[in-house]
Design a protein that fits this description.
- The chain has one domain (19-74, 93-156).
- It has five helices and five strands.
- The protein has helices at residues 66-77, 83-88, 104-107, 136-143, 153-156; strands at 22-28, 49-54, 57-61, 94-99, 122-127.
- Strand 2 and strand 3 (57-61) form a beta hairpin.
- The longest helix is centred in the middle third of the chain and has 12 residues, at 66-77.
- The radius of gyration is 20 Å and the shape is globular.
- The chain starts with 21 loop residues before the first strand and ends with a helix.
Length: 159
């Protein structure tokens, strides 16, 4: 917000406050079943994942199949000049991830979110508790474990 200096303030430096830019990216907007077909290219075929950027802060809502594309995008954004820089700058991705609920369409992409596999990245995850007591803290490890998934959740989980 910028206020024009009054006559009493003339001669003083006017201060301009700049607001952080808000950017919203829809990486997935579908319901229960991903449908990445040519017929769905206009709006996309991935299940729900919305990214909000507010200045330097990244907020992610839901981890449907759209989060896989977001992960690829984040990995492409960072291209280290050499191995030394890569080792020094390991913690290059951080975000707050909010799970609205833990049905498959909201979490099925999370195990394939590449930045979650890289040591040093930091993701704070949040989710509510269902009437039966289940939460993202209990549902994600159960759904992302043997026999339904390749690796243990702790191996895949961000630090």
């Amino acid at each position: 917000m910028y206020a024009r200096p009054s006559t009493a303030q003339r001669g003083q430096t006017a201060v301009k406050e700049t607001a952080a830019q808000l950017i919203v990216n829809f990486w997935g907007v579908r319901g229960s079943v991903p449908t990445p077909t040519a017929a769905n290219q206009r709006y996309g075929g991935n299940t729900v994942c919305v990214e909000m950027l507010l200045g330097e802060q990244r907020i992610i809502f839901d981890g449907g199949t759209g989060i896989v594309g977001l992960g690829r995008h984040l990995q492409q954004q960072y291209q280290p000049d050499n191995a030394i820089n890569a080792a020094e700058d390991e913690a290059r991705h951080s975000a707050h991830i909010f799970f609205t609920h833990t049905q498959w369409d909201r979490i099925q992409g999370f195990p394939f979110f590449q930045p979650a596999f890289i040591p040093g990245n930091h993701f704070c995850m949040y989710g509510g508790t269902a009437p039966n007591g289940a939460s993202s803290n209990t549902a994600l490890p159960i759904k992302c474990s043997s026999p339904t998934f390749l690796c243990r959740y702790k191996t895949c989980a961000p630090t």
